[in-house]
Amino acid sequence: MKDLKLYISAGIFILLTAVRVISPSFAAQLADEIENVLVMEHEQTVSVIELGKSLAEGEVISTFFQKGENKPGPEPTPAPTAVTAITPAPAPTPAPTPIAEPQPTENPAVAAFLESQAAYAEYAVPTNVSYECPVLPFEYVSPVSGIKSSGFGYRLHPIENKVKYHYGTDFAANTGTAVTAFADGVIVAAGDSDSYGKYMIIDHSDGYSTLYAHCSELCMGCGNVSKGDVIAKVGSTGAATGPHLHFELMCNDTYLNPEFYL
Q: Is 238:195 a contact under the CB 8 Å cutoff?
Protein backbone atom coordinates (compact mmCIF):
# COMPACT_ATOMS: atom_id res chain seq x y z
CA MET A 1 0.00 0.00 0.00
CA LYS A 2 2.88 2.37 0.88
CA ASP A 3 4.58 1.62 -2.46
CA LEU A 4 1.33 2.44 -4.29
CA LYS A 5 1.11 5.81 -2.53
CA LEU A 6 4.77 6.45 -3.30
CA TYR A 7 4.22 5.72 -6.96
CA ILE A 8 1.15 7.95 -7.04
CA SER A 9 3.04 10.81 -5.32
CA ALA A 10 5.94 10.46 -7.70
CA GLY A 11 3.60 10.51 -10.65
CA ILE A 12 1.87 13.61 -9.38
CA PHE A 13 5.23 15.28 -8.80
CA ILE A 14 6.44 14.53 -12.30
CA LEU A 15 3.08 15.60 -13.76
CA LEU A 16 3.16 18.93 -11.87
CA THR A 17 6.76 19.58 -12.92
CA ALA A 18 5.92 19.00 -16.54
CA VAL A 19 2.81 21.17 -16.37
CA ARG A 20 4.74 23.87 -14.55
CA VAL A 21 7.31 23.96 -17.35
CA ILE A 22 4.69 24.02 -20.07
CA SER A 23 2.09 26.25 -18.38
CA PRO A 24 2.96 27.86 -15.04
CA SER A 25 -0.54 29.36 -14.60
CA PHE A 26 -2.36 25.97 -15.19
CA ALA A 27 0.12 24.29 -12.85
CA ALA A 28 -0.74 26.69 -10.03
CA GLN A 29 -4.49 26.05 -10.56
CA LEU A 30 -3.97 22.28 -10.63
CA ALA A 31 -1.93 22.40 -7.44
CA ASP A 32 -4.77 24.24 -5.68
CA GLU A 33 -7.30 21.58 -6.79
CA ILE A 34 -5.08 18.73 -5.60
CA GLU A 35 -4.65 20.41 -2.25
CA ASN A 36 -8.41 20.80 -1.88
CA VAL A 37 -8.87 17.10 -2.65
CA LEU A 38 -6.23 16.09 -0.17
CA VAL A 39 -7.78 18.34 2.46
CA MET A 40 -11.24 16.86 1.77
CA GLU A 41 -9.89 13.36 1.91
CA HIS A 42 -8.15 14.15 5.19
CA GLU A 43 -11.36 15.55 6.68
CA GLN A 44 -13.39 12.54 5.56
CA THR A 45 -10.79 10.21 6.97
CA VAL A 46 -10.93 12.04 10.32
CA SER A 47 -14.74 11.89 10.26
CA VAL A 48 -14.72 8.13 9.67
CA ILE A 49 -12.20 7.66 12.47
CA GLU A 50 -14.36 9.74 14.87
CA LEU A 51 -17.49 7.78 13.85
CA GLY A 52 -15.67 4.53 14.54
CA LYS A 53 -14.65 5.71 17.98
CA SER A 54 -18.18 6.82 18.84
CA LEU A 55 -19.60 3.50 17.69
CA ALA A 56 -16.98 1.55 19.64
CA GLU A 57 -17.76 3.56 22.83
CA GLY A 58 -21.53 2.98 22.50
CA GLU A 59 -23.72 -0.11 22.85
CA VAL A 60 -24.33 -0.57 19.11
CA ILE A 61 -21.44 -2.96 18.58
CA SER A 62 -22.09 -4.96 21.76
CA THR A 63 -25.79 -5.14 20.99
CA PHE A 64 -25.01 -6.23 17.45
CA PHE A 65 -22.70 -8.98 18.64
CA GLN A 66 -25.11 -9.97 21.45
CA LYS A 67 -27.92 -10.42 18.95
CA GLY A 68 -25.61 -12.35 16.75
CA GLU A 69 -24.75 -14.62 19.65
CA ASN A 70 -28.42 -15.04 20.70
CA LYS A 71 -29.65 -15.66 17.20
CA PRO A 72 -31.00 -19.19 17.21
CA GLY A 73 -29.00 -21.43 15.03
CA PRO A 74 -30.43 -24.30 13.05
CA GLU A 75 -32.07 -26.97 15.13
CA PRO A 76 -29.65 -29.83 15.58
CA THR A 77 -30.68 -32.83 13.60
CA PRO A 78 -31.50 -35.52 16.13
CA ALA A 79 -29.36 -38.57 15.80
CA PRO A 80 -31.38 -41.35 14.24
CA THR A 81 -32.71 -43.74 16.80
CA ALA A 82 -31.17 -47.11 16.30
CA VAL A 83 -33.86 -49.62 15.41
CA THR A 84 -33.27 -52.91 17.05
CA ALA A 85 -33.83 -55.62 14.51
CA ILE A 86 -36.39 -58.09 15.82
CA THR A 87 -35.37 -61.58 15.03
CA PRO A 88 -38.55 -63.51 14.24
CA ALA A 89 -39.11 -66.48 16.45
CA PRO A 90 -38.52 -69.67 14.52
CA ALA A 91 -41.73 -71.29 13.40
CA PRO A 92 -42.40 -74.44 15.38
CA THR A 93 -41.64 -77.55 13.44
CA PRO A 94 -44.99 -79.22 12.82
CA ALA A 95 -45.29 -82.58 14.39
CA PRO A 96 -45.45 -85.26 11.74
CA THR A 97 -48.94 -86.45 11.11
CA PRO A 98 -49.12 -90.05 12.17
CA ILE A 99 -49.90 -92.27 9.26
CA ALA A 100 -52.68 -94.59 10.11
CA GLU A 101 -51.94 -98.15 9.31
CA PRO A 102 -54.31 -99.40 6.65
CA GLN A 103 -56.96 -101.57 8.14
CA PRO A 104 -57.62 -104.79 6.32
CA THR A 105 -60.83 -104.68 4.33
CA GLU A 106 -63.24 -107.24 5.68
CA ASN A 107 -64.50 -109.78 3.19
CA PRO A 108 -68.26 -109.23 2.69
CA ALA A 109 -68.83 -112.98 2.99
CA VAL A 110 -66.99 -113.04 6.31
CA ALA A 111 -68.99 -110.04 7.57
CA ALA A 112 -72.26 -111.68 6.60
CA PHE A 113 -71.27 -114.93 8.29
CA LEU A 114 -70.25 -113.24 11.55
CA GLU A 115 -73.53 -111.33 11.58
CA SER A 116 -75.48 -114.56 11.14
CA GLN A 117 -73.60 -116.13 14.06
CA ALA A 118 -74.30 -113.19 16.42
CA ALA A 119 -77.42 -115.01 17.60
CA TYR A 120 -75.20 -117.78 18.95
CA ALA A 121 -72.72 -115.53 20.80
CA GLU A 122 -73.27 -117.55 23.98
CA TYR A 123 -71.76 -120.59 22.32
CA ALA A 124 -68.01 -120.97 22.11
CA VAL A 125 -66.40 -121.49 18.72
CA PRO A 126 -65.00 -125.05 18.53
CA THR A 127 -61.23 -125.24 18.87
CA ASN A 128 -60.88 -127.02 15.52
CA VAL A 129 -62.68 -124.19 13.64
CA SER A 130 -61.22 -120.97 12.17
CA TYR A 131 -63.20 -117.97 10.96
CA GLU A 132 -60.23 -116.70 8.94
CA CYS A 133 -60.34 -116.50 5.17
CA PRO A 134 -56.89 -117.45 3.89
CA VAL A 135 -56.06 -117.22 0.22
CA LEU A 136 -56.13 -120.72 -1.24
CA PRO A 137 -52.88 -121.71 -2.97
CA PHE A 138 -54.63 -123.38 -5.89
CA GLU A 139 -57.42 -122.85 -8.42
CA TYR A 140 -60.86 -124.13 -7.50
CA VAL A 141 -64.44 -124.47 -8.78
CA SER A 142 -67.85 -124.87 -7.18
CA PRO A 143 -68.46 -128.58 -6.36
CA VAL A 144 -72.12 -128.52 -7.34
CA SER A 145 -74.80 -126.47 -9.03
CA GLY A 146 -77.28 -125.91 -6.20
CA ILE A 147 -78.69 -123.56 -3.60
CA LYS A 148 -77.31 -123.15 -0.11
CA SER A 149 -79.82 -124.70 2.27
CA SER A 150 -77.85 -124.73 5.53
CA GLY A 151 -74.78 -122.71 6.30
CA PHE A 152 -71.52 -123.23 8.17
CA GLY A 153 -71.55 -122.61 11.93
CA TYR A 154 -74.05 -122.96 14.72
CA ARG A 155 -77.59 -123.90 13.72
CA LEU A 156 -80.68 -125.71 14.96
CA HIS A 157 -80.11 -129.29 13.86
CA PRO A 158 -82.98 -130.33 11.52
CA ILE A 159 -83.17 -133.87 12.92
CA GLU A 160 -82.05 -133.60 16.54
CA ASN A 161 -83.85 -130.23 16.98
CA LYS A 162 -81.08 -128.65 19.09
CA VAL A 163 -78.27 -126.18 18.49
CA LYS A 164 -75.22 -127.93 17.10
CA TYR A 165 -72.22 -126.84 15.11
CA HIS A 166 -72.41 -127.52 11.38
CA TYR A 167 -68.89 -128.11 10.01
CA GLY A 168 -69.80 -127.72 6.35
CA THR A 169 -72.28 -126.09 3.97
CA ASP A 170 -75.30 -127.85 2.49
CA PHE A 171 -76.28 -127.21 -1.15
CA ALA A 172 -79.76 -128.40 -2.09
CA ALA A 173 -79.94 -130.01 -5.56
CA ASN A 174 -81.84 -132.71 -7.35
CA THR A 175 -80.81 -136.28 -6.87
CA GLY A 176 -78.25 -137.31 -9.48
CA THR A 177 -76.84 -133.78 -9.96
CA ALA A 178 -73.11 -134.03 -10.73
CA VAL A 179 -70.66 -133.43 -7.87
CA THR A 180 -67.23 -132.27 -9.06
CA ALA A 181 -63.79 -132.05 -7.49
CA PHE A 182 -63.18 -128.65 -5.87
CA ALA A 183 -59.50 -128.59 -6.94
CA ASP A 184 -56.71 -130.82 -8.17
CA GLY A 185 -55.74 -133.47 -5.67
CA VAL A 186 -55.83 -137.10 -4.67
CA ILE A 187 -58.93 -139.04 -3.56
CA VAL A 188 -57.82 -140.54 -0.27
CA ALA A 189 -61.11 -141.92 1.02
CA ALA A 190 -64.38 -143.10 -0.52
CA GLY A 191 -66.96 -144.91 1.65
CA ASP A 192 -70.32 -145.02 3.40
CA SER A 193 -71.25 -144.04 6.96
CA ASP A 194 -74.39 -143.67 9.09
CA SER A 195 -74.04 -139.92 9.34
CA TYR A 196 -72.38 -138.93 6.02
CA GLY A 197 -73.92 -141.63 3.85
CA LYS A 198 -71.85 -142.12 0.72
CA TYR A 199 -68.87 -139.74 0.99
CA MET A 200 -65.48 -138.94 -0.54
CA ILE A 201 -62.38 -137.10 0.75
CA ILE A 202 -59.79 -135.39 -1.52
CA ASP A 203 -56.41 -134.10 -0.37
CA HIS A 204 -55.17 -130.94 -2.06
CA SER A 205 -51.85 -129.12 -1.80
CA ASP A 206 -50.48 -127.36 1.31
CA GLY A 207 -52.54 -129.38 3.80
CA TYR A 208 -55.96 -128.55 2.38
CA SER A 209 -58.66 -131.21 1.94
CA THR A 210 -62.38 -131.40 1.02
CA LEU A 211 -65.22 -133.79 1.93
CA TYR A 212 -68.34 -134.56 -0.15
CA ALA A 213 -71.22 -136.33 1.66
CA HIS A 214 -74.81 -137.71 1.34
CA CYS A 215 -74.07 -138.71 -2.27
CA SER A 216 -76.33 -141.15 -4.10
CA GLU A 217 -73.39 -142.55 -6.08
CA LEU A 218 -69.59 -142.38 -6.07
CA CYS A 219 -68.16 -142.12 -9.56
CA MET A 220 -64.45 -142.52 -8.84
CA GLY A 221 -62.21 -144.56 -6.56
CA CYS A 222 -59.02 -143.47 -4.84
CA GLY A 223 -56.41 -141.82 -7.00
CA ASN A 224 -55.52 -138.56 -8.70
CA VAL A 225 -58.27 -136.16 -9.70
CA SER A 226 -58.42 -132.79 -11.42
CA LYS A 227 -60.63 -129.83 -10.48
CA GLY A 228 -64.01 -130.08 -12.15
CA ASP A 229 -63.92 -133.87 -12.59
CA VAL A 230 -67.20 -135.56 -11.74
CA ILE A 231 -66.56 -137.65 -8.65
CA ALA A 232 -70.12 -138.37 -7.39
CA LYS A 233 -73.82 -137.54 -7.66
CA VAL A 234 -76.15 -135.71 -5.29
CA GLY A 235 -78.28 -137.88 -2.99
CA SER A 236 -79.79 -138.08 0.49
CA THR A 237 -77.92 -140.99 1.99
CA GLY A 238 -76.99 -141.05 5.70
CA ALA A 239 -78.56 -138.56 8.14
CA ALA A 240 -80.27 -136.34 5.58
CA THR A 241 -83.75 -134.84 5.23
CA GLY A 242 -83.53 -134.44 1.46
CA PRO A 243 -81.18 -134.54 -1.55
CA HIS A 244 -78.24 -132.19 -1.05
CA LEU A 245 -74.46 -132.10 -1.00
CA HIS A 246 -72.75 -131.60 2.34
CA PHE A 247 -69.40 -129.97 1.52
CA GLU A 248 -66.53 -129.42 3.98
CA LEU A 249 -63.21 -127.54 3.57
CA MET A 250 -60.30 -128.18 5.96
CA CYS A 251 -56.70 -127.05 6.36
CA ASN A 252 -54.53 -129.29 8.51
CA ASP A 253 -57.64 -130.67 10.24
CA THR A 254 -59.00 -127.18 10.98
CA TYR A 255 -62.42 -126.46 9.51
CA LEU A 256 -62.83 -123.36 7.31
CA ASN A 257 -66.06 -121.84 6.03
CA PRO A 258 -66.56 -123.03 2.39
CA GLU A 259 -68.97 -120.13 1.77
CA PHE A 260 -66.03 -117.70 1.80
CA TYR A 261 -64.92 -119.18 -1.55
CA LEU A 262 -68.23 -120.12 -3.22
A: yes
